[in-house]
Amino acid sequence: MRIRFEQQLEQLNIELIKMGALCESAINKANEALLNVDKNEECVAEVMGIEDEINQKERDIEALCMKLLLQQQPVARDLRQISSALKMISDMERIGDQAADIAEISKYVQVRQNASKIHIGDMAKATTKMVTESIDSYVNRDLKMAQEVVRYDDVVDDLFQEVKSELIELVVKDSQNGEFYFDLIMVAKYFERIGDHAENIAQWVEFSITGKHEF
Predict the structure, then answer these.
(1) pTM score, whole prediction
(2) Which of 29, 59, 159, 173 has its CA 20 to 30 A from that of 52?
(3) Cα 149 from Cα 146, distance rounded (Å)
(4) Are 44 and 101 in contact (CB under 8 A)?
């Protein structure tokens, strides 16, 4: 019975890795949609397709977790691992939603040459790093990595403040495009929220390992 349970836990890890990879792809494609006008339509369509895959993956993982809970009677540590996975997939689903929001906004941004000059691309890279490492920390039961992800959210927050300052300066210099700069502020805010969700994932990893969660 325990061997079967371990196999299902391993499958849970694999499915979480797949869902995390989908989130990474959604973030990267949303950023490409924002910065590359020639590929905007193609990238937006890809992001929307990936979001659908993320939603389906959430349902699949939820079903697997329910099977583990109902059929295998997990002990305390295993129970924390499974319940943490259920919390994590909720955050990953929100990451997919926010990547889709970024892609949607990108269709209306008309100052892409300036978008590429500010730190929004750096926010995309930083949040992708957080998502990747938060999932890796769960799969590898790596408490130190999870804690580093939580701390790294400060980097994303600092980048958000920097982007806001850059965009305010652009509004002052180019007020006729002010509406589009405010669109970019919304994009930066979505990236900042993605960072928050990745931080949440890392905190649930910490709970799965230690039994403690910082609410």
Answers:
(1) 0.91
(2) 159
(3) 5
(4) no
Domain that residue 135 falls in: 2-210
Residue 215 inside a domain? The answer is: no
Q: How many CA atoms lie within 13 A of 6 on its CB side?
A: 3
Give the whole-angstrom CA distance, residue 78 versus residue 205: 12
Residue in the structure block whose two tokens are 């892409």: 112
Residue 68, in any domain of the structure: yes
The string of pLDDT tens digits covering residues 104-161 is 999 887 766 666 678 888 999 999 999 999 999 998 999 999 999 999 999 999 999 9
Residue 180 sits at the vertex; the CA angle it makes with 175 and 184, to the nearest 5 degrees, is: 120
Report pLDDT digits (tens) over 31-45. 999 888 889 999 999
Distance CA 6, CA 14 (A): 12
**120 and 184 Cβ atoms separated by less than 8 Å:** yes
Query: What residue has token string 């980048």?
Result: 159
The CA-atom distances, in angstroms, between 189 and each of 78, 182, 186 are 35, 11, 5
What are the tokens at 173?
């210099």
Token couple for 13? 């890890």
Nearest to 122 by CA among 55, 188, 199, 38: 188
HSE-up of 55 (CA within 13 Å, CB side)? Answer: 10
First CA to last CA across the chain, in angstroms?
Answer: 35
